[in-house]
């Protein structure tokens, strides 16, 4: 660990709201010795929970760490509470694995996946003590690079980065790192190194180019400043999704993340070509993984993580060629282990009864369909290959197969949209809503409406984006039209879409605006609670830039800020597609489309009519899932210092997953959402260590010591099962039996002072403390929950009540009884040495009441 680590443990972790975001000791974490290695900080400019849900981050972490001479450590944007503590204590932002300050890395590699994370980049650089603009970072600062979805238009962020890597990173990252390693050995100056790097296909060094404007301040293109730099930057595309790109043992966070499951990429690219969709252009061509590879990845991934859910990731999962076979084989293999399967991206029209049948045993939390527009005319304009019948049929299949919630996504402000199209949205939603009613109560529909923002690399890249007041008018019209009882409709904030639109098609002038907005206070813009357009409005004004100009319709012959990047889609082709849209030409026009560079771009839609329109209602039968428990076991376990900042809820999840990884024969509850039969004792407070925690588990076979050693092998470092005993199945539960706990804490007072304070507390009749419960402050007397206090060589031993009948917290004894400050108390290391059952004068261990 870096020497800074000690300060982080003492001055930072005990005081932040969610220390699990910053600890960096997750399951399958990779920690390498830094000597002689190229140090790469992999940075996601949003908080841990979002960054850890991004598959691209796990892929790069794995690929870079596979290189013997490189190490890769992660960095995320701290939440404001943590940011304040870092600033107040002058602690620079650090990597999770070794707590190394960012300045000490060779490369800072950002994943840019969303425009509203741009100010997060500046915040991270600033918290690291680094100059924000690339021109101001001299030789001794790390190289600051970026890749990801958003760098397909890198210009708005061009002033902050030394280089961008455009396209799939899995192969090109090796060339980039090899070149940096070589440059380091040869002591190249930063500029010399950048020249070398710019020779790599897919690498864009923005300082070697400059944007130009004509006399009317019209953008005329990005031009090379040095002859060595390539004229066009060719985006990198991997031809297949090779097994070596994917980690066999992905990182498993202790804290719950946005997508807390095993993510398996089944396909990159999309077989559809909706005209508004940037993803289909950027991730083209469509590349599918073979079923055997996916099954193998599922096998390894589940064995190394213990996840209870697999998510099949792609832009449109139901377009995967053999989806029913894949899902069936996954279910056959993993359902006995109670692993469910999620399909996050379904397309009505390809969600068939066959697929619904194969995923009957998954969690049915909700199904999402995105018709995007309310009328067939507009769906033809945007080339959304869905009819009303497709949608209603898919919804019917979903409801009849046991799903209760349908989520529908629509856009407003699409090219050629009229109020008739908005009425079409209301009609379509009404039909889905009515259909749900025919299946009885409990079926619901959620609708999300987002303003359309034209995106680069799409046939609509030249279109205007509707002004905020017009979007507000359309929202207000929709609000009237969608006034159904119990229908939940959410509207994306038009100001957020406005800013996305400006940044998404912006030029290099916006770097200064982003900088000003950050200085004004913008950060975590992607979070509704922090998004404040005023910071941005002022930033535009300060830089005398009219943001509305970026939303205007663009001349088809005008240069666009991303024209110097080449994704293999000709502008002529996009123009023809645009014309077809406005001619209302239908999808059938395949001949010319097939002549385009990649025939995959517009494949013939595969129609499975017979599967789609089966309207017979299907009775959902309950699946017998219980497993009979044959033994009940009580386990005593310990929690060490390295994981003391893992919360109780996170510990529960960690044990459940360790039990899965260990393969011990755990019994499950009944029903569609079976749970392992595990019951924990009273929670250990965050930050405490313990050698005396308990849990009861039920097994389907008699317990043996072999189960114990398997479980110990599967538990992450810091957790250990100390002993296990079979108990009566009717033994009193831990939570109702345990009523006392013994804590120890070392204090800086002298033995005499401690003794005096103990005597003072024990002489009191009441010791009132303040507690916040359900957002209300209340006063509680804890005096009689202090059962015993003892001094042992400046260590205070406290026997306190726990449980629903009354409890005292050790911190309360120190704050209210010893008069210590909260900050002082939070930095102490508490140990729980016993969880006990107090019966009259007897103190028993939970192992003694079995
Ligand atoms: S189905 Fe359409 S919107 Fe969805 S990813 Fe494919 S092209 Fe884009």
User: What ligand species are in this complex?
Assistant: iron/sulfur cluster
Using only CA atoms, what is the Rg? 30 Å
What does the main sheet amount to?
9 strands, mixed
Distance between the termini: 43 Å
The CATH topology of the domain at 4-234, please? Rossmann fold
| Shape designation | globular
Q: Enumerate the spans where pLDDT stays under 50 for 5 or more consecutive residues.
A: 588-624
What is the class of the domain at 4-234 in the CATH system? Alpha Beta
Q: What would you give as the CATH superfamily of the domain at 4-234?
A: Response regulator
Helical content, roughly? Answer: 25-40%
Named CATH architecture of the domain at 4-234:
3-Layer(aba) Sandwich
The helix-and-strand class reads alpha/beta
So how many helices?
27
Estimate the strand proportion: 15-25%
**What is the arithmetic mean of pLDDT?**
91
Q: What is the strand tally?
A: 30
In short:
The chain has 850 residues and is α/β, with parallel strands linked by helices. Among the domains are: 4-234, Rossmann fold (3-Layer(aba) Sandwich), CATH 3.40.50.2300; 364-494, Transcription Regulator spoIIAA; 631-734, Alpha-Beta Plaits (2-Layer Sandwich), CATH 3.30.70; 748-827, no CATH class.
Task: Spell out the blueprint of helices and strands.
Layout: H1 4-12, E1 38-44, H2 48-51, H3 55-66, E2 70-76, H4 80-88, E3 107-111, H5 118-127, E4 143-147, E5 163-165, H6 169-185, H7 190-198, E6 203-204, E7 209-213, E8 219-224, E9 233-234, E10 262-265, E11 267-268, H8 278-282, E12 287-288, H9 291-305, E13 309-313, H10 323-334, E14 340-342, H11 353-358, E15 367-372, H12 376-381, H13 388-400, E16 405-412, H14 419-437, E17 444-451, H15 468-481, E18 488-491, H16 494-504, H17 510-520, H18 533-542, E19 565-566, H19 571-582, H20 590-594, H21 609-612, E20 631-639, H22 648-662, E21 678-680, E22 689-699, H23 705-714, E23 719-727, H24 734-737, E24 740-746, H25 751-763, E25 768-773, E26 776-781, E27 786-792, E28 795-801, H26 810-817, H27 822-826, E29 830-839, E30 842-844
Helix pairs in contact: 3-6, 5-17, 6-7, 9-10, 9-22, 13-14, 14-15, 17-18, 22-23
Bound molecules: iron/sulfur cluster (SF4).
């Amino acid at each position: 660990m870096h020497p800074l680590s000690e300060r982080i443990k003492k001055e930072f972790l005990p005081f932040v709201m969610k220390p699990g975001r910053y600890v960096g000791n997750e399951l399958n974490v990779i920690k390498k010795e830094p000597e002689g290695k190229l140090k790469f900080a992999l940075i996601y400019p949003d908080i841990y929970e979002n960054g850890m849900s991004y598959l691209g981050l796990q892929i790069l972490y794995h690929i870079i760490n596979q290189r013997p001479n490189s190490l890769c450590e992660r960095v995320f944007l701290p939440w404001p509470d943590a940011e304040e503590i870092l600033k107040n204590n002058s602690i620079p932002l650090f990597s999770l694995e070794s707590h190394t300050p960012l300045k000490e890395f060779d490369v800072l590699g950002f994943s840019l996946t969303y425009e509203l994370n741009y100010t997060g980049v500046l915040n991270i650089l600033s918290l690291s003590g680094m100059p924000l603009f690339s021109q101001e970072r001299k030789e001794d600062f790390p190289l600051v690079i970026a890749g990801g979805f958003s760098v397909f238009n890198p210009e708005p962020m061009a002033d902050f980065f030394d280089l961008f890597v455009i396209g799939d990173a899995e192969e090109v990252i090796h060339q980039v790192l090899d070149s940096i390693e070589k440059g380091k050995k040869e002591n190249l100056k930063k500029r010399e190194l950048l020249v070398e790097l710019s020779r790599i296909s897919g690498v864009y060094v923005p300082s070697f180019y400059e944007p130009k404007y004509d006399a009317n301040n019209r953008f005329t293109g990005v031009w090379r400043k040095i002859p060595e730099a390539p004229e066009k930057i060719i985006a990198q595309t991997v031809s297949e999704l090779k097994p070596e790109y994917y980690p066999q043992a992905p990182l498993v966070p202790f804290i719950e993340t946005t997508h807390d499951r095993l993510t398996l990429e089944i396909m990159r690219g999309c077989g559809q070509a909706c005209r508004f969709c940037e993803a289909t252009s950027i991730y083209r061509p469509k590349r599918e993984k073979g079923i055997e590879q996916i099954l193998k990845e599922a096998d390894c991934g589940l064995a190394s993580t213990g996840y209870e859910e697999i998510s099949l990731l792609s832009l449109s999962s139901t377009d995967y060629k053999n989806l029913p076979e894949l899902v069936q084989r996954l279910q056959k293999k993993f359902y006995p282990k109670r692993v469910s399967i999620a399909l996050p991206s379904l397309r009505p029209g390809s969600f068939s009864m066959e697929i619904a049948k194969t995923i009957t045993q998954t969690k049915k939390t909700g199904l999402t369909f995105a018709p995007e527009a309310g009328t067939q005319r507009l769906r033809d304009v945007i080339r959304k290959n869905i009819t009303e019948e497709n949608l209603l049929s898919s919804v019917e299949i979903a409801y009849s197969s046991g799903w209760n919630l349908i989520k529908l996504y629509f856009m407003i402000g699409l090219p050629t949209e009229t109020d008739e199209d908005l009425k079409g949205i209301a009609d379509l939603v009404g039909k889905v809503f009515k259909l749900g009613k025919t299946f009885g109560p409990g079926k619901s529909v959620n609708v999300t409406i987002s303003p359309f923002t034209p995106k680069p690399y799409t046939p609509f890249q030249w279109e205007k984006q509707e002004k905020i007041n017009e979007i507000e008018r359309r929202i207000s019209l929709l609000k009237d039209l969608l006034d159904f009882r119990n229908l939940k409709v959410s509207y994306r904030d038009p100001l957020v879409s406005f800013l996305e639109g400006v940044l998404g098609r912006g030029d290099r002038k916006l770097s200064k605006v982003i900088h000003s907005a950050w200085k004004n206070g913008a950060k975590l813009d992607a979070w509704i609670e922090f998004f404040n357009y005023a910071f941005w409005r002022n930033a535009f004004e300060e830089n005398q830039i009219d943001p509305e100009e970026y939303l205007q319709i663009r001349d088809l012959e005008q240069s666009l800020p991303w024209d110097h990047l080449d994704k293999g889609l000709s502008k002529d082709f996009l123009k023809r597609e645009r014309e077809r849209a406005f001619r209302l030409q239908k999808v059938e026009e395949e001949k010319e489309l097939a002549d385009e560079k990649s025939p995959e771009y517009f494949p013939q839609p595969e129609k499975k009519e017979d599967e789609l329109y089966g309207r017979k209602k299907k009775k959902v039968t309950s699946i017998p899932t219980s497993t009979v428990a044959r033994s009940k076991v009580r386990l005593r376990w310990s929690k060490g210092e390295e994981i003391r900042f893992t919360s109780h809820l996170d510990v529960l999840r960690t044990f459940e997953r360790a039990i899965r990884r260990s393969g011990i024969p755990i019994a499950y509850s009944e029903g569609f959402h079976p749970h392992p039969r595990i019951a924990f004792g009273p929670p250990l407070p965050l930050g405490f260590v313990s050698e005396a925690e308990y849990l009861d588990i039920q097994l389907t076979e008699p317990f043996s010591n072999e189960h114990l050693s398997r479980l110990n092998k599967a538990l992450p470092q810091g957790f250990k099962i100390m002993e296990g005993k079979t108990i009566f199945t009717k033994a009193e539960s831990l939570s109702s039996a345990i009523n006392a706990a013994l804590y120890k804490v070392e204090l800086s007072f002298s033995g005499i002072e401690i003794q005096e304070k103990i005597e003072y507390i024990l002489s009191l009749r009441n010791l009132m403390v303040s507690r916040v419960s359900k957002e209300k402050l209340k006063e509680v007397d804890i005096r009689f929950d202090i059962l015993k206090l003892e001094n042992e060589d400046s260590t205070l031993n406290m026997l306190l009540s726990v449980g629903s009948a009354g409890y005292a917290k050790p911190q309360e004894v120190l704050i209210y009884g010893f008069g210590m400050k909260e900050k002082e108390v939070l930095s102490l290391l508490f140990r729980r040495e016993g969880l006990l059952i107090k019966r009259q004068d007897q103190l028993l261990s939970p192992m003694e009441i079995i």
